[in-house]
Amino acid sequence: MRPALNPLVLSLKESATLAINLKALELRRQGKDIVHFGFGQSPFPVPEIIQQALRDNADKKDYLPTQGLPELCEAVAGFYRNEFGYDFKPLDVCVGPGSKELIFQIIYLMEGPLLIPVPSWVSYGPQAALRGKEIIPIPTSRENNYRLTPELLDRACYSAGQSQKLLIFNNPNNPTGALYHENEIKEIAEICRAYQVIVISDEIYAMIDFDQLPMSSLATFYPEGTIVSGGLSKSFAAGGYRLGVVLIPDSLELMMSALKSVVSETFSAVSAPVQYAALKAYRDFDEIRPFVEKTCDIYKYILSYLHTRFIGMGLNCPKPAGSFYLFPDFENFRKQLQERGIITSIALVDVLLGESSIAVLPGSDFYMPATSLGFRVAAVDFDGVRALETWPGVDYVTEEYFHTFFPKIEQGCECIKRFLRG
Ligand SMILES: Cc1ncc(COP(=O)(O)O)c(C=O)c1O
Predict the structure, then answer these.
(1) pTM of the complete model beyond 0.90
(2) Is 191 left (phi over 0), alpha (psi -120 to 50) or beta?
């Protein structure tokens, strides 16, 4: 039987990140020694107090309110107020099964095109496509470390015409590791205000910032038009718990009531025990803070190590300041690669996996041109439990220690070096 499918679905393929994960894991299962820099999942264990809260609440079986457990909404609003100074109330919070689903629902609710700075996370585009929404890419430049500037945003908003516009702004950034500074955010906020842009500020990597500076957000400088998304997946290391949140300001109240209706007609509510575990995470964040700080320290070291090695090999690569990603490219080797028949980022990552045993994602999955030679590295191929137990602090890492506890990070660099030698 050949079912007739919704044409909007036909153009979709499986999410690139999930697909590379399966491929790398299958190769490992076959006994291949693969460096897996493809999948952006925290390697650290879920903090024990969150696990305990999950166990303690295994008996919670009732459906919870659509918007989320009221105590959790209160704890989330409190967390964002204490940590980042945002002015959201408990009723501004909606809990969902991952911020990915909530971002999709907001894109689904909204009229008007979606502005996507390029490069950006792989799922925004397909989500907009599922809604039949026009996507307006905003190319950024490597020379400016792929940062969205007010000028670029201004131009894109002006060209988009009069209709309502939605901007997705991800900070700290996947794939580049960029972290925006307050002065940049203020200028971007002014442009958003001028064009009345509705912003989804995707802050799922909030708190993974290496200099532990106060996080700057459009939620502070453009509160009336900014929706914040976040969740347990990255800094709390609990991606598989599937719990995300959005915070929608009063001024967009209509959107919250529409979101509640869509949630009530789709997933109903997030699993009750997971919401109670999240309550512990957000309400008692001070107990988790040392964990988050230590993991940041580890990411900082690893990303700085990889950055130095990549630059040493002649790759271009903006220096990451947050998240756990790097976005290097082989542009300096374009001619040699062309002679080897590699002219697209897809061909590049295929050869990297097939010949050099390293899994990364192609730049084109992040909306870069097909012929860009950029790729994304998720620097998470290490044993997070052992790393946490043994971490001596950034200033005390020896070569021997690094070699023992982060062998795949070193091996990844060797794979790329070997690839460059042809
Ligand atoms: C930039 C970005 N936004 C959102 C998400 C979704 O996270 P979750 O659905 O686990 O909350 C991810 C996950 O990798 C991401 O990288």
Answers:
(1) yes
(2) alpha
